[in-house]
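Researcher: Quick test of sequence recovery. Tokens follow.
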């Protein structure tokens, strides 16, 4: 509970800093870049080598792809039922299957499960959400957005040049290797900056832009993302008899709000910016209510 309160406190700090004139509007982009380049890779290098390889780790690797498939199919069926416009369908296909499992998810996993849950959250994010954003996300943008169409080379380049993904490969290669103490001290110092830096950045850019035409897709999208998807993940794990820490973290990550990075891509592609901002902003706010409830079910 103490970590959860700290996480909310950092979020509120970010919202407060936005009202100070000394902080430019580019502040969250700078903070996110710092987290992507230094904080998150450091955390990955510290925690992933501690993983014990077993069938348990398959759950956080496969779960995001199962949730993506189910969520995307639900969106397509509902889009046909309600005759949503192309831009609305594109936003929902991009933001609802892809959760904020890194910047928001890893701090929340740490708050509820402690450090032991972080390696599984990293696997869920880097081998699930991030790869899905680079592949599935680019396909959605190609069909529904206004940007240029991706190529296999551009997708591969995006994946292999992403600092956290490089850190994951290094961490897997370094299993069983003891880092020297000065390097451990440096990695620990950088890793501890992840939660405050990321949550301040999220709070700084938290905005709500509601219009009547966005209310129905907004409500349906958030219900699927914050309630239906994690409950289906929970049901699937219960049916398969999976109740390990890896499975619990995977279910918890399935209930994260829409991905901020996916939202940024949606806006850049001209896909309903108001709906995108509302999904991200309200998704984060409501997740502070839904995630504790989901944790109680695990």
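Model:
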């Amino acid at each position: 509970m103490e970590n959860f309160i700290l996480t909310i406190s950092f979020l509120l700090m970010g919202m407060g800093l936005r009202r100070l004139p000394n902080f430019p509007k580019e502040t969250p982009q700078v903070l996110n870049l710092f987290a992507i380049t230094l904080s998150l890779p450091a955390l990955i290098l510290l925690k992933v080598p501690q993983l014990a390889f077993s069938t348990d780790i398959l759950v956080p690797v496969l779960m995001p792809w199962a949730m993506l498939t189910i969520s995307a199919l639900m969106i397509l069926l509902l889009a046909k039922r309600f005759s949503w416009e192309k831009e609305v369908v594109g936003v929902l296909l991009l933001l609802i299957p892809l959760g904020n499992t890194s910047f928001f998810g890893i701090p929340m996993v740490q708050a509820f499960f402690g450090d032991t849950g972080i390696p599984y959250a990293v696997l869920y994010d880097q081998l699930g959400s991030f790869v899905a954003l680079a592949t599935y996300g680019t396909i959605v943008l190609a069909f529904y957005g206004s940007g240029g169409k991706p190529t296999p080379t551009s997708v591969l380049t995006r994946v292999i040049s992403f600092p956290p993904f490089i850190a994951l490969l290094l961490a897997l290669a370094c299993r069983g290797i003891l880092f020297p103490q000065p390097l451990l001290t440096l990695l620990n110092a950088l890793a501890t900056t992840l939660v405050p830096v990321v949550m301040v950045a999220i709070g700084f850019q938290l905005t709500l832009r509601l219009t009547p035409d966005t209310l129905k897709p907004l409500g349906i999208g958030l219900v699927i993302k914050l309630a239906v998807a994690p409950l289906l993940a929970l049901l699937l794990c219960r049916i398969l008899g999976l109740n390990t820490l890896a499975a619990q973290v995977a279910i918890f990550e399935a209930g994260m709000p829409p991905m901020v990075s996916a939202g940024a891509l949606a806006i850049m592609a001209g896909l309903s910016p108001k709906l995108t901002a509302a999904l991200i902003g309200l998704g984060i706010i409501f997740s502070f209510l839904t995630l504790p409830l989901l944790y109680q079910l695990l």
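The mean pLDDT is 85.
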